[in-house]
């Protein structure tokens, strides 16, 4: 397998560039030119959104703040800062490298910065700043934590090694607004190239707490400052500052080089699940690699609060859905993780199990039985956190079914019996009860009335196809899982699933909802097609063909919108329309990618140029990966022998010969997937 394709280096930063994103799924950092200052988040740290007053992921003090001062002039004091020589991602190793030049008083300093959120040690962020000068000067290097930006207050500031907190340079305890969450941040530094230099510990009125080193620098020498920072929230430990010190001590014992090596090895293992597009132009492989990277860098099995539609990425220019947990992840991202990072998928789905009580309360408040998962789930409580206004929280009723299907597919993919019994079954049972209480039995069969689907048309409709198909699939999965675990289930679940109303047009295609018109507002949203893929609702070949054909013929007005745009190429490919499939991949995915770092945005900048270029948007990139892994290959996760998962002819977009993955994890065993255009079915070979 060849190396993943990293984006080209950047040598000029522009205001319209999407900020650099560095994450391991637990910690998230964003910055523009210089990684010495930026914005940070950590999974599990929440509070009331300052504007909307709902539970939200909130920024924390920046854990890798730094500065370089030459003859008394620091980079941070110069309006334009340092000149960018080069900035580049190394997707293969999960690293960002930044090269700067800072000239003052006739002395030039070349500064190279390595920034990493460690995948092997998830509470650890690490940075290495290397400086070379071309003339003798007084050089000062600092590294620490900056609490001057986010809302909150410190409950502890301790500086200097050898104190109560061992060898740490400093410890900051931070409490968020409203005292909902707290976190501990502790760091340690080491300077190479200047023997005998004594560190100075500082705490400024602006909230910056740092370690400083002063040296008389000479040309031809290299000065290297390394920083390890541990970030722990009270979601992990009730005394997060103490536990952060413990994690830092462990990291220091391992050593900086060993930590980098362990981090790189984790990424090397992840990249064995790389989706290779056989025969496709290298541009498409680069886009696929970027999507793979941004998805896998945004999730971790250690994350206590799932992940949001933007992972751990935040920037003050947009709401980023306040870090809420939404159905986008279960439907578009989890399928791509089930076979590449099953332990991480298990953790994400475990969040839903642990928040089952909130889903029950949500159902009870609307008069239903069972569990109704929120439209926007608060990352800490799991309760409804949608801001005021709009009907989605009370009418967008496919979320619970989306959760149920993700849980069931995890069980199919992994064969994890313990998870099936302890996590999947309790959730599927309650969701099945909710669906049974939500439907209405009429002369047409079973109906789900007054709902909104993916299109979010602004008003409820009856019998939305995606909602009904998802509900039927959830009922069938619950009805099958119960007996497999030796449990009895309600016979009505299967009866409802078989008789849920699916509206159709005169040609026999499934349509979006009762009284649907293709020219209605958002009528080009391919909701019915999405019920078949990625929803998985089984239909006969002719119904599938007619439904996909109707979607492809009407989809032009939808392309550029989030989520399903990335799926539309699958629909055309399954119709055998290879040229149209490639066109839809271009407009439905490639046009969402913002350069210079191949960041997948929420809305297509070419279709919606006035909207913020917010990314990486996990639903879009996860949808693309899920489409490649399952949609184009024809693979369907189900109970029974995995050899039967691939059971339909393979059709690729024009110019693509196939899809290959060197290693997936299937029922605990490594497996290889190969799908070649024109063959009767893909091959899933278990070791």
What does this structure look like?
The chain has 687 residues and is an alpha+beta fold. Helix content is 29%, strand content 24%. It is built from 16 helices and 26 strands. An 8-stranded antiparallel β-sheet has the order 8-9-10-11-18-15-14-13. It has a 5-stranded antiparallel β-sheet with strand order 7-6-12-17-16, with no helix packed on it. It has a 4-stranded antiparallel β-sheet with strand order 19-24-25-26. The longest helix is centred in the middle third of the chain and has 22 residues, at 417-438. 56% of the residues are buried.
Key terms:
five-stranded antiparallel beta sheet; 16 helices; globular; alpha+beta; eight-stranded antiparallel beta sheet
Q: Count all strands and give the number.
A: 26
Spatial strand order of the main sheet: 8-9-10-11-18-15-14-13
Structure class:
alpha+beta
Unreliable parts: none
Q: Return Rg in Å.
A: 26 Å
| Mean pLDDT figure | 95
Shape: globular
Helix percent reads 25-40%
The first-to-last residue Cα distance is 17 Å
Tally of helical runs: 16
| Largest sheet, strands/sense/barrel | 8 strands, antiparallel
* Strand residues, percent: 15-25%
Biased composition (Basic and acidic residues): 512-522
Domain Glycoside hydrolase family 65 central catalytic: 321-516
InterPro entries: 6-hairpin_glycosidase_sf, 6hp_glycosidase-like_sf, GH65_N, Glyco_hydro_65_M
Protein name: Glycoside hydrolase family 65 central catalytic domain-containing protein
